[in-house]
Amino acid sequence: MSAESAVGAVPMVEARAVCKHYAGVEVLKGVDLVVNRGEVTCLIGPSGSGKSTLLRCINHLEKHDAGELLVDGQLVGYEARDGKLYERSDKQICVERSRIGMVFQRFNLFQHLTVLDNVTIGQVKVKNVSPDAAVTRARELLARVGLDAKEKNYPSQLSGGQQQRVAIARALAMEPKLMLFDEPTSALDPELVGEVLDVMKDLARSGMTMIVVTHEMGFAREVADTVYFLDRGIIEESGDPRKVLTAPSSERLKSFLSKVL
Amino acid sequence: MKVVPVRHTGRWIAGAVMVVIVAMLVHTLFSKVATGQTSCHTVSGVRSCHPVVNWRFSWNIVFHYFTSSEILHGLVLTIELTILAMLIGIVLGITIAIMRLSPNRLLSSTAWSYTWFFRGTPVYVQLLFWFNISAIYQSLSIGIPFLHVTFLHIDAVSLFTPFRAALIGLGLNEGAYMSEIARSGLIAVDEGQFEAASSLGMTRGQTLRLVVLPQAMRVIIPPTGNEVISMLKTTSLASAISVVEVLGAAQNIYAANYEVMPLLITASIWYLIITTVLSIGQFYLERHFARGAQRTPPPTPIARLRTDVKGIVAKFRTPRPAMTREVVA
Ligand SMILES: Nc1ncnc2c1ncn2[C@@H]1O[C@H](COP(=O)(O)OP(=O)(O)OP(=O)(O)O)[C@@H](O)[C@H]1O
Ligand SMILES: [Mg+2]
């Protein structure tokens, strides 16, 4: 087996029995999940089931307590060397994070910066890209999400859908190998959901590896390669969306789908 | 149908009362009083006498000293003390606020104790303390405790000049108040901003410097403006530790000529002038840091004046459209 095909075979994200608890409350109770390169994975489940927590563990905004979590074949937060696990320094963790894009339910654009500056700041300050190159790339990305005309505006002057598209451009500017979306359309008015989903579909077509926490079952059915149903901290059911979403086997998923659809 | 506007009778009465009060104030400010002396002149052989009168507020003396070199020197010292003490206070305050919010318990409790101590004792006492510090520390040395290793050695009396004692006292005290202001600003920034910055790969320092502090500024600036104005006046306490700032200069002059009231007025007018200048500066600073927070920034006073004038001109130029409505039969 050549080195290249070995890399190709390593999944982008692999979770084995990942656990996480907050002050006595067990939020993740042994989650197993595999996300292959270039695939779109949708994570569905009721409120409080631990979907956000799982995403936050993947980009190390939270530290999991037990189990193994690998991103791009590397243990999150640790480095395996000479048969030992070395905890990574804050600096190394920042570098890891910069390669994983995250899009939040409440957009979280930097309110004091213009749209253009929101998309350039990470490139310039974290990736040390020259300001000119950063602006060029930012303009390309803003054009891609259909917001090139808004680069001088502040986030508060944009609609929710526009803000979320800027947030996607901001994350893409870091040239991520993986994109995490935490309910990207839940805070939007119904008529604005489509424009954000369209950008995400376009991104999926371009071959980006994506994990999407969503309540948009139509999107999951159309775009996802795999759907995971997370309930009370464990994966209850997973597989092809056409099967999982149309003919669920577990009772919990049946009742969840009947509420969401 | 014709629209009849509401009559605001109450507002007219209140306005009239205010006009009378203001008129009385202006009158007494510029009234004259007899000094009890008479002065006599002989004009073309006719001798005439009349009582000598003076401004009640001795405006002639006020303005005689207003730009005297002692007062102006004092003024420079007042401004220097205000600016430097505020700079110390702001830098210290932001540092302490960041320490206070640190997950490190040692840092946060140190920061808490600092604020507790410096807010809990009067600033006047603190000034006297720094002024007299040489009584307990004859000299200051920097070195390693218990090992008799010294890198630097300074004589306390030459280090703590009255000006420096005042600066340190005011600055350290201000740091405690500024830390509370900075802390409320940092807390006001949404948690999501930290998360977004971290997810881009920013370090904690970058997140604070590039994302959180600039947004906290919007909350921090207005009370800091008040602190500057308050500091301007607090610097007058430095006169008690023989710093000849503007009040100290006024005191020195009236100690010699007994014109107490006019010189206090001279100092007060200077304080009012600087306060006014600072308030104008504060307005523009607030406007600058509000960017992004409001969809449209508030107009500057000049812009507002311009629109007001335009409105009035427009009102006179075009006849007011009659507020009538067609009554459909
Ligand atoms: N920092 C925290 N401290 C304590 N408990 C937390 C913390 N963060 C999350 N939790 C708890 O963990 C559980 C899972 O939270 P999580 O945000 O992952 O759920 P979720 O599936 O994303 O739900 P939602 O659909 O509402 O976003 C919840 O019960 C929540 O109260
Ligand atoms: Mg969530």
SSE layout and pairings?
The complex is a heterodimer of chains A (261) and B (329).
Chain A: H1 3-9, E1 13-22, E2 25-35, E3 40-44, H2 51-58, E4 66-71, E5 74-75, E6 78-81, E7 84-87, H3 90-98, E8 100-103, H4 115-125, H5 131-144, H6 160-172, E9 178-182, H7 190-205, E10 210-213, H8 217-223, E11 226-231, E12 234-239, H9 241-246, H10 251-260
Parallel strand pairs in A: 3-10, 3-11, 8-9, 9-10
Antiparallel strand pairs in A: 1-2, 1-4, 4-5, 6-7, 11-12
Helix pairs in contact in A: 4-5, 4-6, 5-6, 6-7
Chain B: H1 9-29, E1 32-43, E2 46-55, H2 59-66, H3 69-100, H4 105-120, H5 123-131, E3 139-144, E4 149-155, H6 156-159, H7 162-188, H8 191-199, H9 204-234, H10 246-257, H11 260-289, H12 301-317
Antiparallel strand pairs in B: 1-2, 3-4
The complex binds adenosine-5'-triphosphate and magnesium ion (MG).
Short note summarizing the structure:
Chain A is of the alpha/beta class and 261 residues long. Chain A has helices at 3-9, 51-58, 90-98, 115-125, 131-144, 160-172, 190-205, 217-223, 241-246, 251-260, and strands at 13-22, 25-35, 40-44, 66-71, 74-75, 78-81, 84-87, 100-103, 178-182, 210-213, 226-231, 234-239. The model of chain A is unreliable at 1-5 (pLDDT under 50).
